[in-house]
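Record 1 of the preview.
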Amino acid sequence: MNTVGIVGAGRMGSGIAQVMAQAGYDVILFDISNETLQRALENIRRHLERAIELGAIKREQMQSILTRIHPTTKLKHFITADIVFEAVIEDIDVKCKIFRELDDRCAPATILATNTSSMSVTKIASATENPYRVIGTHFFNPPYILKLVEVVRTQHTSDEVVEKTVEFLKGIGHSPVVVKDSPGFIVNRISRHFYLEPLRAYEIGLAEIEEIDRAFKLLGLELGPFEVIDYVGLDVNYIVSKSIYERFNYEERFRPVAFQAWLVEAGLLGRKTNSGFYSYFGKDKKVQDFLKREKIKYKFSKKFLNLADTICRKILSRKDELNEPQKIVLALTISMIINEGFYALMENLASKEDINSAFRLVKFPAGPFELAEQIGLKNVFNFLNLAREELMADRYKPALLLARKFE
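->
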């Protein structure tokens, strides 16, 4: 392969363009807006300047990297591309329209890849006359730092296309994990609970935004769940949650939280608007005043609280720094991540090893099954059953594969 096409010059599209140009490929970067294309080139230049400061590249390399990126507003230029990555908004109709056009304009041997994070790659492929050459390549943001790529094969995708895509991604220094086409794939599906459980804990008044984020940082994470949502964008996070919920036929464990939708409607989208769960002024940030609230003191059984404490003790070195609500939120979240791992395994989404690897590659301290080993499966199983009773919520029902281990 010599030439890479990229559709969409937003944050992800420009990030992928940078990765490809740094790997030595000629890049055709398409967007309908010249202004967006210019902004993308400026952002890439800024990221490369930062890479120079960190010693990752030399200054003389920067110009040659930039000259390999060719902006265009015409899809016809993709006729020379060997592989095309689509990275536009998460709208299935928009993506299907783009793939119909790419199928018409690209050479027969060109691989067509979508960067969708949660939508059906099969449906996107079905919009083309040649679905065998359509594949999912879900990069993570920012792609020049995070090396994981979920390679999503549909029932149409040819073995040759899967093999070529995997080899290409390895060649640019990324780590591809092949996964079956399923809502949210590996990371966005299983990690939904990293967002949904903290959001629900805040929604019912169990814990405050800032104390939840502090608890998760004790796991070794750079950002807590609310900080991550602000970084990604409340709108992007909500769209993914909504898509997964709908595609799982409104399964309760994936139900989005209403107040997040209200914040999106109000235009509070996180860092990109300087206002989300936190307000951002320069380097300072603080929880929005209107999101501060009095906590509700819930009465939980001693057995439930002791098990939450046990789970935290197993995964944290400094669990004594946590208060009771923090322990509950952390234990609920980790238990649900593990439980979803078993649901995914039950559906043959990917292997245990690949699921664990995918989580480590996005900087999570351990994969779901590694966490399960640390905590003990019996503790996870018992805690989920207790949570189901204490919080009167069927979403905590253990996956069948997990439950059968204790019958």
